[in-house]
Fold:
Amino acid sequence: LTLSPNTIGDPDPFWYIGGGGPGAPGNKIMEANLYQQVDDGSLSGQLVTFEGTVLSNTFTEAHETRIFIRDFAPDFSSFTETSILATPGAFSISLLTDADPTRHVQWGFQTTGVNVWITDTEPFGNVMITTIPAPSALALLGLGGCVALRRRR
Structure:
C-alpha cells in the first residue's frame, strides 16, 4: 500500500494560493481515510489488534499519516480511538472495544496534508505500508502449502 498526497488538477484559486499550476502551494487540507470496518457485532467487547510494517515514510512536514483503530457509537456520533504515527518499522496497536454489538469498528490509515498539483507529488514524499494477514488468512496459506507439498510427492 502506498499513501501519497492528494492531487488537484484544477487551476481555480479556490484550491491554490494565487491560482493553480505546477509549483503552486495548496490552500486546502485534505484528510483521507483508508480503513476496514466491521458492523456485525463480532468485535464487540474484544481486544482488536492491528499489525503491519511501515516500509518507509518520506512525507515532508506538509503531510502526516496515522495508523488507527476506532470504535464508533451505533449512530457514528462519537468514537473511542487509539492511533500512532506511521514511522518506519513494525507496528502493533490494540483497542478494547465496547461490549455493544451495534457499534462499528474500523482499523486503517489516515493521511492529512495539503493538496498538491498533479505533477508535484514526488517532492512531498509518500508512505509505504504492508500489513500482516488475519490469522484465518495465514491458516489458509498454510493449508495451501500442505496441499502443494503433497502433490509434489
Remarks:
- The chain is about 10% helix and 45% strand.
